[in-house]
Write a structure and sequence with these properties.
- Helices cover about 70% and strands about 5% of the residues.
- α3 packs antiparallel against α4.
- It folds into two domains: about 110 residues, no CATH class; about 80 residues.
- The protein is globular and about 65 Å long.
- It is mainly α.
Length: about 210
Amino acid sequence: MIWLAGMIAWASLVATVFVYNHLPATLPIHFGTDGAVSVANKSIVWVCTGLPVVLWLLFFLKVRPLSFSSLKTSFSQAMQAGMLAVVGFLIALAWALIAYALGFHINMNFVVKFAVGCLFLIVGAVIPRIEPNPSFGLRYPWIMHDNVAWKKTHRLGGWGLSLIGLAALGLAFIDAQWSIVAFMVMIFGFLTLTSVYSWRVHTKEKTQPKR
């Protein structure tokens, strides 16, 4: 999967070369629920399509050796699936913006919420298999060296992200300001719940007598 993510990222960047001269002078970068659209110089497209390549290179050089050194192949597969999901998410948003700029009728608020929902569902499915690492997961300091707390936290986190992903898919069909607020509240609640839960598990493990 890591090679597939790289191929997609590089193909997206190369394709940008062919559409760049056809883009208008400005590119939309923010869509408000009130219909307002913020724009920037079209050169911002290189950031949009270049970022997935940069992330893929960082993963390939830094995280891939770590995940492949693990004896558990599920860890490596989970890391690669997570990387593919993030790359796919960024590319989908970048090309939705390009298509919008080229005159295609696209509801960007729907696209963003739907893409976020899909991303959260995929990440929620893979993070329970993630082992402690320096780059990916719920990296609360107190669980980085506590395997029990790490596993339990990421098991809960997987369910939480999946539920938020499902909610985001539903919110994609609601074009209202409160849908964004609702999503942010869910994220805040998720981070609060997982941080408190991870701390409680960690402190419980520390106070239990070692056998």
